[in-house]
Amino acid sequence: MRFLNFYRSKKYLQRIILSVTSLIIILVSIFSYIVFQYAQNIIIGIQNESNTKVLSQIQYNIDYMNEVVRNIATSLYFDNDVIPLMTASKPDQVDLLTRRMKIDKFADYTPFIDSIIVYNGQMDKFIWGGNAELQNSADIRYAKLKELLNGQHEVPKMRLFSLKEDVFSIVNYDAFPYKKGKSALFINVKTQWLFENIQIINRLAGQLNENIFIVDELGHSITPHKDAAISAPEIQQIITQLPATEGESGYYRFGSGSKEKMISYMNIHENGWKIISVVPLEMLMGKVERLKTLLILVTSGFLFISILFALWISHRLYRPVGNLLNHVKPLRAVDQEQGQKGDELAYISSEYHRALAQVSKAEKDQISMHNIARQFYLRKLIHDSQTISDIQIQEYIRENELNIGLTGAYLLCIIKIDKSQTFIPIREKKLVYFAISNIAQEIVARKYRCETVEMKQDHLAMLISIEYAGDEMYRELIAELQHVQEVVLRMYHVTFSAAFSEAVDNLEKLSHYYNEALHDFQYKYIFGPGAVIVPGMISVNQRNHEANLPVELEKKLIESIKLNQSELFGKTLDRTFKHISSLHYDYIEYMIMHVLLLMKVAIKEINHNRIHPVSIDLSDTNRKILESETMEESKLVFQAIYEELSDRLNHQEADGRNEVLMDAIKEIIETKYTDVNLSLQEIADAMRMSPTYIGKLFKKWHGQSVAEFINEIRLRYAVQYLEENKYNINDIIDKVGFGNRSIFFRLFKNKFGTTPKEYRISKSIMDN
Questions:
Q1: Which ranges in 78-164 belong to alpha helices (H)?
Q2: pLDDT at 657 over 70
Q3: Residue 58's CB: how many other CB atoms inside 10 A?
Q4: C-beta of residue 460 within 8 angstroms of C-beta of residue 388
Q5: First and final CA of the chain: distance in angstroms?
Q6: pTM over 0.70
Q7: Can you tell me the distance from the alpha carbon of 375 to that of 210, in angstroms, rounded to the nearest whole number?
Q8: What local confidence, expressed as pLDDT, does residue 384 receive?
Q9: DSSP β-ladder status, 450-455 and 167-173
Q10: Predicted local distance difference test score (pLDDT) of residue 340
Q11: Summary count for the chain: helices (H), strands (E)
């Protein structure tokens, strides 16, 4: 019980034992299976070799028998006692009997010959010797011989073939191929003689259970005796499954289960026969089963030893884990924890990670507090340096391990995300500033000692220690900042701008230079997003304190607007903004608003001289200008105002010209409506304009085509004539220009809902 409790509490040990034991069992099982299959294949291979040797000996016996029988057939064919039997047309009966007795004795004295048959072609008669069964003229052999000699089939010459199940036959005749009516000599050999020799060979080879039969060229089987151990249907199945190969020999497995057999075969090319050997696999499997039993016993013993070895090696592997577990917690606590968290390694891992998390948390807390303190003092140093003495500044640097020099020159760099990135949420924006701070710190620190801190006004301040101040140093810093911009853009898809201060020779003046750098950063309005501004880039602006535009520019700007000259306005606006970009930043915004005022004055003067004033909504323009991040954006606002004004001016001019044209067309129609041929084409010809253009423009202005307007004028005058009651209806049709009476009536009824006659009657009644 103690033993079980010990292992029950050691789940990891259980897994080691189970893994090692399973691995050994699998390896041993695979090895045993491979050995067993290999041994089985070896036994079958040995049996096949043995069968092949026996079949080779049988083949030799058959070849020898072939040779002997051929010699006998040749000898008898030319024997003086046999020749008369084949050639005589009317033999003497006594002589015939004497000669037949001689071949009869020859057959009796030769142990393997069953009978000798002479066929006399001239008499069409068989003369036999040997087997007494041939006395019966109705014997089946005679019928088969006659069928063979009838000339319809090829008669094999001097080659053994199967005439009957228990005999082999060989035939000799004059010329090949055999011709019907020719004499022939048949020697019939006992098959039993051959199979008795085969049995002798099997006894010598120790293969008493082997069954051998022969398959002739026609696929017929020749077996040693009728009560053979293998049945005729089974023999037929074996013959059917013989591989169609021309190789000398081979083997395959036939049947299944306890009736499975090993079939070996060998080809006899001379006769076209196959010798078939059938050995029950049960006999072979007996040897395999004995080997299998031995392998099971050996494997079982080895497995028992392997399990003991697995226990020993598992304990050796587990020992370091057990020692570690004892150091982590007392055993009872381990058991309680294991019931909830898994095996020993899981418990040790969880305890390790818990301890690691505690250590990491403590380190993070310490680092966080340290960083907060560093950030606070660095922010205070930049923002309120005038309130800190030089000694205190050096103490701040040493105590907070700031990566800047205690003495020497310094630079301040202001970094701020461009306004085009305002879509970034506040939380993510702080993370982006944190990332920019780390990236800038890492890249710039390769050449300069520096510290970066996030200021409260939504920007970063980088304090850099430098050895000297000069253009070369600024070029290096610009290159470093541009590298930072590339990395940030690639990783976070965010752009930022930066501005460097003048060199600071005393950290007590740092706050003053910080404010100057913030002011210089505003010149990003001129340089655009992603700018890196150094003092040399804005020195001209800093000295320029003018706050006005050249009078010439103001006049040209107003003139280009009033004359609606786009090219002149564009060039003048470019010159105006170029002049503004050279001013001190304090006056740039004022001058931009002054340009807006000039445009408003120009629009007012345009509207003062026009019947129809141009209406431009400028209520939102101030906001757009103030929200512009760059001068280019502000210039686009002015460009948009001008384009809107120009479009409206052009539209009004076009409307005025079109109005005159429409009045002219209507005047022509009013004057010539009585002309039956009046049409759009005639009006266009008179105006020397395209009929398509006039037609589209007229319909756009009046909502109806020229033809519809002509008909409307004619109908108006027709009503007037009807009301006057001076003319009949036909005269009225002619007077108003309708050339077709039916068209007039249809159009009149469509417009007034009644015929002209009914209209006149109803009008007269109403007047009276």
A1: 83-87, 93-109, 140-149
A2: no
A3: 22
A4: no
A5: 136
A6: no
A7: 102
A8: 85
A9: unpaired
A10: 45
A11: 27, 15
